[in-house]
C-alpha cells in the first residue's frame, strides 16, 4: 500500500458504480469483486459504495467525496461514468476543495473499467472487466499526475472536463446519435457515424492555436482533440496523444465523403489515418474554433467531450494548468 495510506488511518475510498453500465453487467461484476476488494484494502480503508441513480448523479457523488477529503474516488463503469466522476472534481471552473480543517493528501481519481467502451483503459493497456488486475491497481494505489482537458462554450456557463477526446462536427454528432443505440454495444458507434452522415455537410471553420492568428480551415468533416488516444469504443483517433505531456493532439479530417469514411474506417481503428492526405494533425495547449461562414451555421456544428454532447460552436479547448492525481 502507498506510504500515505499507512500515515492516515481514516482513508475513504469512494466507489461510484453505474449499475446500468454495459447493459447491467457492471453491477453484477462489481458485486462479485467487492468482497475481495474489501479484504485486500484492509481495515485501514473505509470502502464507500455509491450506486448512481441516473445520469449526472456520479458528478454529485464525486464532488461530495472530494469535499469530504476522500483518499480516492473510483469510477466503476464505462467512460461515461469516468467522465462524470472527473467532472465532480471541479465546480464553477475551479478544482473542488476539501472542507476546511482537512489536511490529508489530495483526493485521487481511480477507474475500474467495466463499461462498453473503456477507451481510457485501452490507452493504458488495461484489460476491461479484469477483476484481479483492477483490485491490484486500487490496492497498490500508485498515483501519477494526469492532464485534464477543458471545453468552454460561451453560451454555456459551465466548463466541462475530459480525459479522453473532445471533438466537433461529424464525430460529435455521431457520438450523440450513438448514445441512443447503446443497447447494440460497440456497434452503436458505427450506427451513429452512418446516421450522422445523412445530414452532414463539411464546413469551413476558423481556428486559433495557443492565442496566435485566426486561420480558416476548409471543409472540416470532424476535428478531434485528444488528451488520450481513443474514442468511440476503440478508434485510435489521436494516436500520438499522451495524457502526461501537457498538450492536446488535434486531428482534423477534411473533405471526407460518406464513402471515404467506409473505405478508411479500418485506419481510424489502427491510428494510421493520420498519414492520409485528407487528415491534418497539430499539437496545442489551446484551440479555439468558430464557423468561418454564416455564424448561424455554427449552430449545426456539434461539440462533445468524452462522449457527452455539450452543445454547438463556438468552443475553446484547452489543457488545464493543474493536473490531477490518478491511480495507475
Ligand atoms: N443509474 C443510472 N441509470 C441510467 N443511466 C445512468 C445511471 N448511472 C449513470 N448513467 C448514465 O450512463 C452513461 C453511460 O455509463 P457508462 O459509461 O458507465 O457505461 P457504458 O454503458 O458501458 O458506456 P461507455 O460506452 O461510456 O463505456 C453515463 O454517461 C451516465 O450518464
UniProtKB/TrEMBL annotation:
Nucleotide-binding in keyword set: yes
Gene Ontology terms, MF aspect: ATP binding; kinase activity
Pfam families listed in its UniProt record: DAGK_cat (PF00781), YegS_C (PF19279)
An annotated GO cellular component: membrane
Stretches assigned to the DAGKc domain: 8-155
Keyword Transferase carried by entry: yes
PROSITE patterns: DAGK
GO term, biological process aspect, one: phospholipid biosynthetic process
Keywords for this protein: ATP-binding, Kinase, Nucleotide-binding, Transferase
Gene3D superfamilies associated with the record: 2.60.200.40, Probable inorganic polyphosphate/atp-NAD kinase, domain 1
Protein name listed in UniProt: DAGKc domain-containing protein
Amino acid at each position: 500500500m502507498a506510504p500515505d495510506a499507512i500515515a492516515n488511518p481514516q482513508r475513504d475510498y469512494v466507489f461510484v458504480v453505474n449499475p446500468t453500465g454495459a447493459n447491467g453487467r457492471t453491477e453484477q461484476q462489481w458485486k462479485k469483486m467487492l468482497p475481495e476488494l474489501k479484504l485486500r484494502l484492509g481495515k485501514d480503508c473505509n470502502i464507500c459504495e455509491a450506486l448512481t441513480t441516473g445520469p449526472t448523479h456520479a458528478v454529485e457523488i464525486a464532488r461530495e467525496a472530494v469535499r469530504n477529503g476522500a483518499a480516492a474516488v473510483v469510477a466503476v463503469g464505462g467512460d461515461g461514468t469516468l467522465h462524470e466522476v472527473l467532472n465532480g472534481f471541479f465546480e464553477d471552473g475551479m478544482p473542488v476543495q476539501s472542507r476546511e480543517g482537512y489536511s490529508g493528501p489530495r483526493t485521487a481519481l481511480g477507474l475500474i473499467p467495466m463499461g462498453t467502451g473503456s477507451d481510457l483503459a485501452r490507452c493504458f493497456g488495461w484489460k476491461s472487466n479484469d477483476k484481479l488486475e483492477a483490485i491490484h491497481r486500487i490496492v497498490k494505489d500508485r498515483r501519477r499526475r494526469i492532464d485534464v482537458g477543458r471545453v468552454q462554450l460561451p453560451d454555456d456557463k459551465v466548463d466541462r472536463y475530459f480525459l479522453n477526446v473532445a471533438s466537433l462536427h461529424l464525430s460529435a454528432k455521431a457520438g450523440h446519435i450513438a448514445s441512443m443505440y447503446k443497447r447494440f454495444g460497440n456497434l452503436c458507434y458505427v450506427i451513429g457515424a452512418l446516421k450522422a452522415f445523412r445530414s452532414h455537410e463539411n464546413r469551413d471553420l476558423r481556428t486559433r492555436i495557443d492565442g496566435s492568428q485566426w486561420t480558416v480551415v476548409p471543409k472540416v468533416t470532424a476535428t478531434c482533440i485528444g488528451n488520450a488516444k481513443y474514442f468511440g469504443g476503440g478508434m485510435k483517433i489521436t494516436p500520438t496523444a499522451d495524457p502526461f505531456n501537457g498538450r492536446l493532439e488535434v486531428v482534423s479530417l477534411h473533405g471526407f465523403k460518406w464513402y471515404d469514411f467506409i473505405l478508411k474506417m479500418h485506419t481510424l481503428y489502427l491510428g494510421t489515418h493520420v498519414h492520409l492526405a485528407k487528415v491534418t494533425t497539430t499539437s496545442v495547449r489551446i484551440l479555439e474554433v468558430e464557423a468561418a461562414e454564416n455564424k448561424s451555421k455554427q449552430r449545426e456544428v456539434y461539440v462533445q467531450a468524452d462522449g457527452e454532447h455539450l452543445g454547438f460552436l463556438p468552443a475553446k479547448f484547452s489543457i488545464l494548468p493543474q493536473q490531477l492525481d490518478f491511480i495507475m
